[in-house]
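Researcher: Hi, I'm a grad student and pretty new to this. My advisor asked me to get structures for two proteins we've been looking at. I'm not sure of the right format, so I'll just paste the first sequence and hope you can take it from there.
Model: That works fine. Here's the first sequence with its structure tokens right after it:
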Amino acid sequence: MSHELRTPLNGVIGFTRQLYKTPLNKHQKDYLDTIELSANSLMTIISDILDFSKLEAGAMELESMQFQLRDTINEVLTLLAPSAHEKQLELSIFIHPHVPDNLTGDPTRFKQVLINLLSNAIKFTEKGSIKVDVGHRLLDEERASILVSVTDTGVGIPMDKQDALFTPFGQADSSITRKFGGTGLGLAICQKLIKLMGGEISLVSAKGIGSEFKISISLEKAIEPTPIVKKSSSSGIISKQYPHKI
């Protein structure tokens, strides 16, 4: 199903981008903007449904490869910083200096979880800030539990609605789907991916105050450390280091 669904949609997106390169009047450009936005939204929905189906069927296989934690987190923040800046939100991160950088695991799925949490924080925060804090806990000589918290000053979630967030196709409020869109699968997928990675996710939130999502993910420490080129990532990184245009 993945190939049959994604291939024609990639064709729509690809030819839309080709049309952007041709002479267009204002109305035609508006039409293309709508086509591209709709196609990208549909691609996100398809990807969520396919990922959720794999997880439900127990067919999701995690990769095991060496990666650098700080570079991986930096890629996510660089990707999402423009969305935060458009809303004039402060996006900041602090990675504790002793957090191991050279790890072995699935960086793609780790990024998927982090992107979902940060995208939600940006989406549901109208003013204020979004803060990411990264720490760790040693499990043994070979493994470490990476601890990540994402805190926002957004709309917050009432206590009686919080369980629904991790339910497939669930939303804290029916009006959320109408206002912001989405399938309601993002956090359900995150929860299952985190469980596959030997971790867990928790939420502390109150309506009108904001939310804090905490995740832990168990990863192996790399046997042969790779030299760290960027040293600044081990200290606090503020939003100024994430340009508006990537």
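Researcher: Oh nice, that was easy. Here's the second one.
Model: And its structure:
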Amino acid sequence: ACIGGYIGKKIVDWKINGNEKSGSEEQNFLEWCIDIFGQENFYLEIQPCNESNIEQKTVNETLMDIAEYYEMKLIATTDSHFMKKADIFSHKVLLNAKTGGDARETEQFYSTAYFMGGEELREYLKLSFSDEQIDWIFNNTNEIVKRVKGYNFEHAPMIPQIPLKDIPDFVIE
């Protein structure tokens, strides 16, 4: 769902920049993903945005159209770059520290890039979707939660054993 990801970039290039080729590349990629993972295992992801973030809004709405066309499920996540809405200035300082100045606009682009609860997420999603659509999106998101199995990091390292005969010859330069 991130507008910096492959599908998001293709949608922006297609819908906002008018590059029809991007629309067909996106379609080819989605069909490849469906073939590889199976339609029931591949979800499209949207993210919250403000009204001023035309690119993310366009990506979200196009992903809904794609989900309907391919009969796929749509989920919502928050692209959480920081914990609380109040932390946006600290995030701006961090990002601009790389350039040594205040040149990079971050507050508008990252204005919804924090960890938020369901009701706040719903309010942002109402910009593009009805409550009924948002309920469907949240239910799809919860499907993934139910599919995730617990795991524990407290165990000995698991190192795969590969027979020497199966390791191809290589040279380190």
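Researcher: Is there anything I should tell my advisor about the second?
Model: You could mention this: The chain is about 45% helix and 5% strand.
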